[in-house]
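Supplementary Text 2. Reproducibility record for the structural model of the 382-residue chain.

All settings were left at their defaults, and a single model was retained for analysis rather than an ensemble. We include the record here because the model underlies the residue-level annotations in Supplementary Table 4.
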Amino acid sequence: MRGPSVTPFHAGEIGTRGAARLRAGRPFIGMHYGQPSAGAPPAAIAAAHRVLDRDALGYTELVELRERIVAYYAASHGVEVGLERVLLTAGASAGLVAAYAAMFRPGDRVAMLRPGYPAYRNTLAALRLTPVEIDCGPEQGFHPTPAQLAALTPAPQGFVVASPANPTGAMLDARQLGALLETCRTRGIRVISDEIYHGISFGKRAVSALEIDPRAVVINSFSKLYRMPGWRLGWMIVPADWAAQVHAYLINMFLTPATLAQHAALAAMDEREDLERWVRIYERNRTRLIEGLAALGITGIVPPDGAFYLYADIGHLTRDSMQFCLRAVDETGVGLAPGIDFDPVNGQRFVRLSFAGNPQEIEQALAQLAAWLPRYRDAESA
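Retained model, structure tokens:
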């Protein structure tokens, strides 16, 4: 190979072992991936069936869906977005690739948070861009500060921010996000705001970067709130004068997103009662998982404001989170994501647990871990 080297998703190995358990007829509770256990909203499924019966499903970019996204920003964020600025993507990942490719040149430096979503770092590397990580630990609530961004020398060309964030669920309020974006403005740093977890928050309102900086590039998706990860559909909001070029990148690299997914997503966006019901389930799961882990002696958790993850400090149990997760899946059937996926420096002492499943899965996972942890401690101390 001659291309840049990128690290794999270590959680993928957990998933592979979990799938092997299921094929062998053994139980597996997957808390390693960030995907809801429930399927798409019922109206989305019904819309997909109707479209299959009448549509040839050729390449398309539904104007109706783009118009509905425009309406969402007006209603939820008080922001007017021109239709030409809304670009449909084959999931948020395609939007991230297109944003990086259009906004930066090889060798440019792009700041991101650590811990953070590993694809930010790896996609940058694959495109021959340089990730610059800002260490945001639990002592600062996993929040970046303007001082940290201002201290980067020389100033990076870009900054990727997420609120709610993966893996921590940390959210930035309007003041915090505004201070970061003002630092970017004064230093000439272009902003990409990953807002894929908007709509999943617990007592806090998610602030869009567009409320503060109309030239921020926003990436979103139907994978999380709308429970449609396998449909591979998302969107971008870009400045009007960039839209044609970014769209050209998208079309050349990915063509158009799946037509069936677009029709289903249009229906999903109006399923507010169903969407909010599942957010309430996630909130209860969050509370139960924090309580259950505390009873097992795992208390190093900053309660997440949004998304559906706990990022738990298990440094009292191990300094090798990958080994811990491999043993957990093999010996209990519970899949956890190792912290090294999100933080190559300090992730050895953390794991991420998704609480996007149903409450019964949370209880089963806690019971399995409760029975296993004493054996794990005994083996480690032997």
